[in-house]
């Protein structure tokens, strides 16, 4: 299904007057609104290929209809999202959930939808059909050298496949760890993991980055071998300049100050990118901004401040990706909501009066500092985000248009009601 641009234009026409009125008011409230709109136009958030199908829990899965059955259909779905919001111009593949047989045609299909290939993700948390060894007791950390070798080789294969597609980063998330005290020698697990990572790092092309994701628990519940930002930092520091830490918002112990973590990693040039989602209890992978929009704003506030201090390009110098998974929403609607929430947080962060904040900080004017941040957070920036979409040829209200056009019903017509998405 390809979206007809006339339908987007007709939808926008219907909403135009109301939008313009809001925009005029918003621009009167926010000094740098024009430059914010430009930055929003440039900002793209990658969609993970595994988020397009309905997720499950360990108790079960309720399949949605019309889910993508192949990589081609996943690319088409991201293409649809991108046509609706012009802010989802990249897809992140997970190998071997996504297998590419014909690179030329996959690249052509992505190009046709104006999509790039973002970070490629390796998978050593499941045993693959024809693999010799099992990852039951870990992959890169495993006490058995042959198992470590197999996991290293898989990562090297993923790099090669990603390079064929024009991707330039590898994301490694390890399920490695232990379930019971005594199961693992922590130091040896660390040393094995480091040695394995070094072998993978050595296979990176010159212009590539390696992102090392951390997670405090799950699926292992006593220890995780890359458990927190400090441990990820310790590895990436030893690996070299191309290795960076990846922050998944749901991977922290409760109440962790993620914005501070982000600020320090950025300062040390060790922040690689993000997996956006939201959570209440753990790695819930709920829609970005659904529960803690203020935290999302505070994270973006540190990002904008830190990237500007280092002269970085907001759109291209870090990896921006959603990592969410749902078992009750239409995944496409959910992704549109996540992108919108991220854009809003970014726009709010861009609107912070940095000079005034710096003065307040230097004068220890705590009240003023809080006023400045909360003023930015409480100012409605949605018209700026919508204007960025309008100027890019996207829809003023993507979720509304998605429903109005009956996209899901169309996909069910094409693909059937009972599809099994590849991957999860
Ligand atoms: C797992 O918890 C991590 O968030 C991974 O980044 C990701 O969800 C996984 O690679 C896909 O299953
Ligand atoms: Zn229980
Ligand atoms: Zn993640
Ligand atoms: Zn996760």
UniProtKB/TrEMBL annotation:
The keyword Lyase does not apply. Residues 102-285 form the Xylose isomerase-like TIM barrel domain. It comes from the Bacteria. One of its GO terms (molecular function) is metal ion binding. Keywords: Isomerase, Manganese, Metal-binding. Pfam families: AP_endonuc_2 (PF01261). InterPro entries: L-rhamnose_isomerase, Xyl_isomerase-like_sf, Xyl_isomerase-like_TIM-brl. This is Sugar isomerase. It comes from Flavobacterium seoulense.
């Amino acid at each position: 299904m390809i979206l007809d641009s006339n339908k987007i234009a007709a939808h926008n026409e219907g909403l135009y007057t109301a939008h313009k009125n809001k925009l005029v008011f918003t621009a009167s409230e926010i000094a740098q609104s024009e430059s914010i709109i430009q930055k929003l136009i440039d900002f793209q958030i990658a969609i993970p290929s595994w988020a397009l199908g309905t997720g499950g829990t360990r108790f079960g899965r309720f399949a949605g209809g019309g889910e993508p059955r192949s990589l081609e259909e996943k690319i088409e779905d991201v293409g649809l999202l991108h046509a609706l919001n012009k802010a989802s111009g990249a897809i992140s593949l997970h190998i071997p959930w996504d297998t590419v047989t014909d690179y030329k045609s996959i690249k052509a299909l992505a190009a046709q939808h104006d999509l790039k290939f973002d970070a490629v993700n390796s998978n050593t948390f499941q045993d693959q059909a024809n693999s010799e060894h099992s990852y039951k007791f870990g992959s890169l950390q495993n006490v058995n050298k042959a198992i470590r070798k197999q996991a290293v080789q898989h990562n090297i294969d993923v790099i090669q496949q990603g390079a064929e597609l024009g991707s330039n980063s590898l994301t490694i998330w390890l399920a490695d760890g232990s379930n019971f005290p005594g199961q693992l020698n922590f130091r040896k697990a660390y040393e094995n993991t480091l040695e394995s990572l070094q072998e993978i790092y050595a296979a990176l092309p010159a212009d590539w980055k390696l992102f090392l994701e951390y997670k405090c628990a799950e699926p292992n519940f006593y220890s995780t071998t890359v458990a927190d930002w400090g441990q990820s930092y310790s590895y990436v520091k030893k690996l070299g300049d191309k290795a960076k830490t990846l922050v998944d918002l749901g991977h922290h112990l409760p109440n962790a100050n993620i914005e501070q973590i982000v600020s320090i990693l950025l300062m040390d040039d060790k922040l690689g990118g993000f997996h956006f989602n939201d959570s209440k209890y753990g790695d819930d992978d709920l829609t970005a901004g659904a529960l803690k929009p203020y935290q999302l704003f505070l994270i973006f506030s540190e990002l904008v401040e830190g990237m500007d201090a280092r002269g970085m390009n907001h759109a291209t110098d870090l990896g921006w990706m959603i990592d969410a998974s749902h078992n009750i929403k239409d995944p496409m609607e959910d992704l549109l909501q996540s992108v919108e929430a991220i854009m809003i947080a970014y726009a709010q962060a861009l609107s912070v009066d940095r000079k005034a904040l710096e003065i307040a900080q230097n004068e220890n004017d705590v009240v003023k500092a809080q006023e400045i941040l909360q003023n930015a957070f409480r100012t409605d920036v949605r018209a700026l985000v919508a204007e960025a979409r309008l100027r890019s040829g996207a829809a003023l209200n993507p979720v509304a248009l998605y429903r109005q056009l009956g996209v899901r019903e169309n996909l069910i017509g094409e693909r059937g009601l009972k599809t099994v998405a590849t991957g999860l």
